Amino acid sequence: MRRTRTIFAAVAAAGVLVTSACSTDTPVASSTSAAAGTTAAASEAETTAAATQPASAASVDKTTEAASETATETSDSATAVGDSEWFIKADYDRQLAQRDAAPEGDAATPWLQAIDPEWIDTAEFKQDGPQNLCFSNASTGNPWRATGYVTMQSQIAVLQKQGVIGDYKYSDAADNDEQQITDIQKFISDGTCDALIVSPATTATLTPAVEKACASGIPVIVFDRGVNTDCATTFIHPIGGYAYGADGANFLVDNLEAGKRVLALRIAPGVDVLENRWAAAERIFADSDLTVVGAEFTGGDGAEIKSIVASYLEKG
Amino acid sequence: MSGADTFGTKFRLSTTQVVALALVALIIVATILYAARGQNFFSTNNLADLLTRSSLLGFVAIGQTMVILGRSLDLSVGYVVALSSLVAATVMNGLEGRVGLGIAAALAVAAFIGLLNGLIITILRVNPFIATVGMGLILKGFIDITYAAQEGKVPQGFSRGFGYTRIGPLPISTLTMLIIGVIAMVVLTKTRFGAHLFAVGGSDDVARLSGIRTNRTLIWAHVMCSVAAGVAGLLIAARFGLGSAQVYNTGYDLDSVAAVVLGGTLLMGGRGSVGGTVAGVMILAVLESAFNVLDVNPFLKNVIRGAIIIVAVAIYAQRQIDPLSRRSRFTPDGRRRATDFPEAVGALSPGGAK
Amino acid sequence: MSTPVITPDLVAAKPEFGRRLQRFFASGTGIVLALLIIILAIIIISNPSAGAPDTLVNSLHKATPLLLLAIGQYFVIIVGEFDLSVGAIITTQAAIAATLLNKQDEGTYGVIALMLVLGLVVGVVNGAIVALLKVPSFITTLAMMLILIGATNLWTGGGIVKGALSDEFRKFGRPKFGIENVPFLGTISWAVLIFIVIAVLAALLIRSSFGRVLVATGDNTKAAGFAGARVTSVRIIAFMVSAVLATIAGIILAGNTSSTVDLSIGSGLEFEAITAVVLGGVLLGGGKGSLFAAMLGALTLYFIGPLFRELGISPELRPSVQGIILIVAVAYAARSGSLRRRKGPGKTQP
Questions:
Q1: Which one, of B314, B318, B322, B312, lies nearest residue B342 by Cα?
Q2: Taking a contact as any Cβ pair under 8 Å apart, which residues of chain C between 310 and 339 contact chain B?
Q3: Span A74-99, pLDDT tens digits
Q4: Secondary structure (DSSP) of C42-79
Q5: At C188, which helix (H) or strand (E)?
Q6: Average pLDDT, chain B
Q7: C327 alpha-carbon distance from chain centroid
Q8: Chain C, 237-256: which have a CB under 8 Å from a chain A CB?
Q9: How many Å is the Cα radius of gyration of chain B?
Q10: Fewer CB within 10 Å, N side or C side of chain B?
Q11: Chain B residue whose CA is closest to C126
Q12: What is d(CA A55, CA A60) in angstroms, rounded to the nearest whole number?
């Protein structure tokens, strides 16, 4: 024990000595009181159409699912809809309007289309020759992200062959905010990235790290989930959670007879985009003739969903 | 402090030293890999990155070491980290003047949870596994009801000072972690509490029959464990600039146990060291860093990590009769050591009897 | 029971009869049974239709995977170890089944056989590392979990399992297939029948000489070894039982869930299984507890979900209530056990 202690004390001391001077890291420049959702550049044309997938097995006659925050018709008494701390009317209205907006750009290349984009001139970043690209990904922990990852790898291979992209560095934070902050820090401090792509794990948490990346001067591209700063050169994001939830809820309101009962299956509490989805859906259900008999958290686990749905059906 | 030390035993590496050697070997391998890619492992940037990665898990693992040495376990640490970050950030609420209050509140909450864990395990005699899994569930419900996913605001000064400042390559957070580690080592090797904890971990019955207040010892260990997790929560708050509930999904509970065991501490209690734990945490950090430089597929990382953990612990287990890391139970009062009788020690070893 | 045994840990071998008496009274079987009855009573009072025999059979069907995992975990825990890899085994096996079957009925039984063999292999590896290399099972199976999940992700190319389960395969998991039109009980599914067969086999096994060696090894490995027990092989076999039962649980769970397989299917089940066993009063650390009580623990844990839904407890609050129920139940069992045994704090190893 004592020997270990000495070893570690020595290591620590050496660490201090090696660096003759005390340098302090450039601290985070989060001076502004992060105004929510001020980001803009281009909204991706990912119109969140209610991806209706048929319900699995058992109770097809009684089941209608909409999107990943699913809702299932069953029957029982009512539950009241309370006001949600996650509901911001302005965002809700904007997102609902964007659902019907015609995307700008050529329909032949939907990946280049955008809804209500605010274009920024990025000519100042134009460079010749292969550029080193760095990508800090939140995770590949769900099929959507895994597909994105695989697709991106292939596209990068193509671009590398064409000589557009030189070196490509990837880091996967496995849904760990702290790891992603460190990953971004590492990319910046290494100074080898000509451009940095960030797909943040969570919004508020990653804001300081992205701001710091912006401050380093390289172009920063944020996509998918956002951050609370508009320092990024480009921000590509889906319309948002409200539209997603509203589409699912509207689908049920339109397709079910009045007085039917709906069971909501939610993934997890406390995540902003998921809460937004449910806040919108809850509002629409409250204004409709449908009754919400329950809202259950499933953790996205199929077996759990099955068990919950079956038990609601059993209740009759 | 060479092998042929004052105790007069023949030269033999302690498990902690094996861990330290493994760390050194791994660093050498990493250095070569870095060099092959034209990078410098010992660059300030890389070292800073490495140390930053290790500090968070380091806090949790140091605390976990305390309870594991006492033959207990804490699987609620992830929730303690999350709650502590939320308490700190909401109490501070962006005001510089409330930094002290925020830290105190977060650590007090953490200590209280540790106290509850300890009481449930000792007084109610609930197995630590179930007690802390149950406590984790209770905290999860509490956090989900009370807080949003992210809440509160940490003032710049604290965020900058604790979260992002470094001295050369050494971040303040890692320095704090090392200081806490040294304090924990001193507590374990120099104090009566430390000797008692080793004794309780070695054999609860024997410790109690020897007149040690086993319950009190274990409760203290749990309080320390939770407070260490609370400090990790403070670091989260400083790094994020706010409190985060989602941290509990990160898996600090199992990661910390893995780091502790990787550091050579016996899961069955009674033997091990904080130094080994810190080395175990560093091993994981160097691995992660090497994975990144080699561009290892994110899924393959888990396979390699799992294999390395098994191999490492298998190596320790082959040399489980380790006189050096359990001596501290008896040396403070200069009593005769049980290790003069290797066979007797063998009876207490993990593969042998419980 | 009337004569307290002081510090039984230090007593190498106790008479079989005495230990069994002691095990019976200190096992907490009565407590978990009472808890289960109370929970069922509340559910049935608030929703009488839940008490119909066919509905109860259906509930048993849904609880089958957890019950099987609990039986497997019981074998591992009674010998003093853990198996944290069972959730990952389920995930891996389900992914393999979906990929190999690719919706085709032919080859279903070949794939099932392959899965069982793979389960055996994982069990042997777990057991060998624990028993021969002396790596603590917590670490061995935790690492096995990392390896299996990582390898499955790697193999499937990151989270999406291509292919789907065949209808033939799914028959084992779905409630509608089995012995139909049983009076009162409706359809008794294959899953329930499989569970009954396994439960009986497990009960016979634990009562056989192998079972006694298992319990003795869990109680005191050293003493059991001195007494001539093959402590290494019984531990390896315990891990094999756990891994194979996890495979069977995976077949049922995946079949019941849907034809596609999601890699989150097994996550967290290892903790549920351990919790179920401990809720049944089985001592972590080995040597004490009954198989029947472990199964009761699994049923109790399963019915906590429906209980919460019946009572309308808000989903956010449920983890807290579940945590409190767990701690109180285990504390109560420990308390009543200790009154009889008058022992110090129980074996508290993780």
A1: B322
A2: 314, 316-324, 326-327, 330-331, 334-335, 338
A3: 333 333 344 456 788 888 888 888 88
A4: HHHHH-GGGGSHHHHHHHHHHHHHHHHHHHHHHHHHHT
A5: strand C186-189
A6: 84
A7: 19
A8: 253, 256
A9: 20
A10: N
A11: B310
A12: 6
User: In whole angstroms, what is the distance from residue B6 CA to residue B34 CA?
Assistant: 40
pLDDT tens digits along B39-95: 888 888 888 888 888 899 999 999 999 999 999 999 999 999 999 999 999 999 988
- A63 DSSP 8-state letter: -
A178 vs B48, B181, B239: nearest CB: B239
Which tokens sit at A227? 């951050």
Question: Letter for the amino acid at C264?
Answer: S
Chain C nearest C-alpha distance from B129 (Å): 6
Both tokens of C77, joined, read 């825990």
Does the distance separating the beta carbons of B269 and C345 come in below 8 Å?
Answer: no
Preferred mutation among A263, A306, A313 to probe C, highest tally of C CBs within 10 A? A306
Checking DSSP bridges between strand A165-172 and strand A131-137, what pairing results, if any? parallel
Mean pLDDT score, B220-233: 96
Nearest CB to C345: which of B138, B204, B266? B204
Banded pLDDT at B24 (limits 50, 70, 90): very high
- Cα distance between residue A105 and residue A115, in whole Å: 9
What percent of chain A stands above pLDDT 70?
72
Which amino acid type is present at position B163? G
Q: Which residues contact B259 (CB under 8 A, 6 or more apart)?
A: B57, B61, B64, B277, B280, B281, B284
The per-residue pLDDT for A241 is: 83
C330 vs B126: CB contact, 8 Å cut-off?
A: yes
Tell whether B7 is within 8 A of chain A (Cβ).
Answer: no
First to last CA, chain B: 32
Contacts of B7 by beta carbon, 8 Å cutoff, 6+ apart: B327, B331, B337
Q: In terms of Cα–Cα distance, which of A279, A225, A283, A246 is closest to A87?
A: A279
Note which residues in 95-134 of chain B have CB less than 8 A from chain A: none
Instruction: Please give the Cα distance from A23 to A310 (Å, whole number).
Output: 61
pLDDT in tens, A238-295: 787 888 889 889 999 998 888 888 898 888 776 777 888 888 998 899 888 888 888 8
Give, as one character, the DSSP assignment of residue C262. B
A149: tokens are 């990852």
Determine, for residues A4 and B53 on separate chains, whether the beta-carbon distance falls below 8 Å.
no
Q: Using CA atoms in the order C134, C139, C145, C146, what is the torsion angle rounded to 10 degrees?
A: -110
Mean per-residue pLDDT over chain A, rounded: 71
Instruction: Pick the residue from chain A with its C-alpha nearest to B282.
Output: A8
Chain B: closest CA distance from residue C98 (Å): 20
List Cα–Cα distances, B322 to B5, B270, B318, B348, C137, in angstroms: 15, 11, 10, 11, 20
Q: Which of B168, B239, B249 sits opposite A175 (nearest CB)?
A: B249
Whether the pTM exceeds 0.90: the reply is: no
Write out residues in chain C with pLDDT < 50, as ranges. 1-14, 339-350
Angstrom CA distances, C323 to A176, A305, C329, stand at 25, 22, 10
Q: Do C139 and B261 touch (CB under 8 A)?
A: yes
